[in-house]
Design a protein that fits this description.
Elements lengths: L1 H9 L4 H13 L2 H7 L5 H11 L6 E7 L5 E6 L2 H10 L4
Antiparallel strand pairs: 1-2
């Protein structure tokens, strides 16, 4: 926000006005707001989508092992469940 502060100051706004404007912008910053509430981590992300949408969870499966004998996994979203979810979704 320092760039915005500098540009607002160049417009001749008082220090108080500049701070007031920046505080207002910080309070209405959608990205920051989401990161503080519903989307702050993966768990909250999934919880939000499960609550508000017909969320179909990805399914994991073992691909095999790599050269270090470490298991490798793949993920897919079940197509049948996804289609059923789309059919039961309400359109606004």
């Amino acid at each position: 926000m320092s760039t915005a502060k500098q540009k607002l100051s160049l417009l001749g706004l008082s220090h108080e006005s500049v701070n007031s404007i920046l505080d207002e912008l910080k309070g209405s910053d959608l990205l920051s707001l989401c990161n503080r509430t519903d989307f702050r981590n993966d768990y909250m992300h999934k919880k939000f989508f499960k609550k508000h949408f017909h969320y179909v969870e990805p399914t994991s499966f073992v691909l095999g092992t790599d050269d270090d004998r470490k298991e490798c996994f793949g993920y897919y979203v079940p197509v049948n469940e996804t289609i059923k979810s789309l059919q039961t979704s309400e359109c606004s």
